[in-house]
Amino acid sequence: MAHGIILNSFIDLEPETIKYLQEAYNNKPKIYSIGPLTLMDKKIDDDVSQCLTWLDKQPRGSVIYISFGSGGTLSHEQIIELAIGLEMSGQRFLLVIRCPNDRIPNGTYFNNQNSTNPLDFLPIGFFERTKGLGLVLPNWAPQVQVLSHVSVGGFLTHCGWNSILESVVCGVPLIAWPLFAEQRTNAVMLTEDLKVALRPKIRDNGIVGRSEISEVVKELMEGEEGKEVCIRMKELKDAAKKVLSEDGSSTKALDELAFELKKCVT
């Protein structure tokens, strides 16, 4: 049997799961809930500087950030619907886009040498029509720096675990758009259990339409349901801050883990 299980999570985020793991086998192996641990990217290049400079010019809480993680890809049809939906919403946006893959939703993992410019797949005239309203970045953005920026008020996410933790630490409410694997389970947790996310409806053909995208974005950024989601995410942010404080449960668990590891090597 393992000596312990380390979880990058905390009780307020996954209360039932952590409680079950602790009680099911009388806390053996020992459960160390040490999260939320996130990594601040220190890399600053021209694209990053452009992104953060643009955010500096936007009103507080006015920008929705859209990213599908390091491996997530959309079909070309879905990229078109997403872009037009953002345009229709009239909201400020920061969109990270990758080249489309019409076969698999995690295509970036298998085609990371593609030199095609993903911006070429956006609708004709999109940049002209959204000038001053949005910024589009190819492939990557400094996510933690973006989420911690005061102008960012929402995050449309694929529901990867790192993205969830980063949004919680920064207190940014979500739109859940899972693509594959455990992301679907994570989306249910965010929308139905924690209620810190909204979720767009998917058509029978698997596409989220432009009107649906527009409506859910506007609801998160301006609507009453969005305000409620924002309040609950702020409460979760405060809970995360508490467990990471000097006397917090995650800090104590990490200290205990370090003590046990030290015993193993001495």
UniProtKB/TrEMBL annotation:
InterPro entries the UniProt entry points to: UDP_glucos_trans, UDP_glycos_trans_CS
UniProt keyword terms in alphabetical order: Glycosyltransferase, Transferase
Pfam families listed in its UniProt record: UDPGT
Family matches, as SUPFAM superfamilies: UDP-Glycosyltransferase/glycogen phosphorylase
GO terms, molecular function: UDP-glycosyltransferase activity
Record keyword Glycosyltransferase present: yes
Family recorded in the similarity comment: Belongs to the UDP-glycosyltransferase family.
UniProt-recorded name of the protein: UDP-glucose:glucosyltransferase
Organism for this UniProt entry: Solanum tuberosum (Potato)
